[in-house]
TrEMBL record:
Function noted in UniProt: Catalyzes the irreversible reduction of 2,3-butanediol to (S)-acetoin in the presence of NADH.
PROSITE patterns: ADH_SHORT
Active site: 156
Family stated for the protein in its record: Belongs to the short-chain dehydrogenases/reductases (SDR) family.
Record-listed E.C. numbers: 1.1.1.304
Entry protein name: diacetyl reductase [(S)-acetoin forming]
Catalytic activity as recorded in UniProt: (S)-acetoin + NAD(+) = diacetyl + NADH + H(+)
Residues bound to NAD(+): 16-18, 37, 63-64, 90, 156, 160, 186-191
Any one Gene Ontology BP term: bile acid metabolic process
Matches recorded under PANTHER family: OXIDOREDUCTASE, SHORT-CHAIN DEHYDROGENASE/REDUCTASE FAMILY (AFU_ORTHOLOGUE AFUA_5G02870) (PTHR43639), SHORT-CHAIN DEHYDROGENASE_REDUCTASE FAMILY PROTEIN (PTHR43639:SF1)
Length: 260
């Protein structure tokens, strides 16, 4: 029997990396979790782990680049968990894209997932909040690369700058509905996606993997790469009552790479 008093969070890209850490942290904070991912087996694994530790979670298969699919996934969450309070539009792709190598296919795919997925998530959340008769929290994944341009990441960075702009616009549009919209901007996080980027960086330079990682960590003030849990702690704040008076912001949690 689902507990109607507990708030519900829907997290895209929840099967691994930052998304998984966010699911686990929000569950520890007392929320019911929809682990939403294209990788359904991975999402089920995370949901099972949360349930085994006394939380309440379901796995929801979603292709965030498909608007109807996102709406259906949110509707499924409302039906199965009995509510909807927080959406974390976390799913994203981050390929290496040196300017001269960008193809239409890469551009299209990354924008459809990163930017499209955020827009469709926002729309689906608005519908759910309205149907349930209350406001809510929309939390989007931007990046350090959405604050400052990084060589080799034109497409990814472009999407993350776009998400920051969408976050500001949505905050202004949705304030009358008691919906806050904020973003979080991770730096270099130890995730499978990051390891892949570091490997490609190293391969292109004809250097070993450790050299690739070093290129990304050398400019961090705290001199260490981020753990997914560091980012999840920031999202925990944005999902909590403590951030009720914050909207339109993009919190940078990058160990000191970008200073505003």
């Amino acid at each position: 029997m689902t507990d109607k008093t507990k708030r519900v969070a829907f997290v895209t890209g929840g099967a691994q990396g930052i998304g998984k850490a966010i699911c686990e942290r929000l569950s520890n904070d007392g929320l019911k979790i929809a682990v939403a991912d294209f990788n359904e087996a991975g999402a089920k694994e995370v949901a099972n782990e949360i349930n085994a530790h006394g939380g309440e979670a379901i796995a929801v298969k979603v292709d965030v680049s498909d608007r109807d699919n996102v709406f259906a996934a949110v509707a499924e969450t409302v039906e199965k968990l009995g509510g909807f309070d927080v959406i974390v539009n976390n799913a994203g792709l981050g390929p290496q894209t040196p300017l001269e190598s960008i193809t239409y296919e890469t551009y299209r795919k990354v924008f459809d997932v990163n930017v499209g997925g955020t827009l469709w998530g926002i729309q689906a959340a608005i519908k759910a909040f309205k149907d349930l008769g209350h406001g809510g929290k929309i939390i989007n994944a931007s990046s350090q690369a959405g604050q400052e341009g990084n060589p080799g990441l034109a497409v990814y960075g472009g999407t993350k700058f776009a998400i920051r702009g969408i976050t500001q616009t949505a905050a202004k549009e949705l304030a009358p509905l008691d919906i806050t919209v904020n973003a979080y901007c991770p730096g270099i996080v130890k995730t499978p996606m990051m390891m892949d980027i570091a490997q490609k960086t190293a391969d292109e330079a004809g250097k070993p993997f450790d050299w690739g990682m070093e290129q990304f960590s050398q400019n961090i003030t705290l001199k260490r790469l981020s753990e997914p849990e560091d980012v999840a702690a920031c999202v925990s704040y944005l999902a909590s009552k403590d951030s009720d008076y914050m909207t339109g912001q993009a919190l940078i949690i990058d160990g000191g790479m970008v200073f505003n």
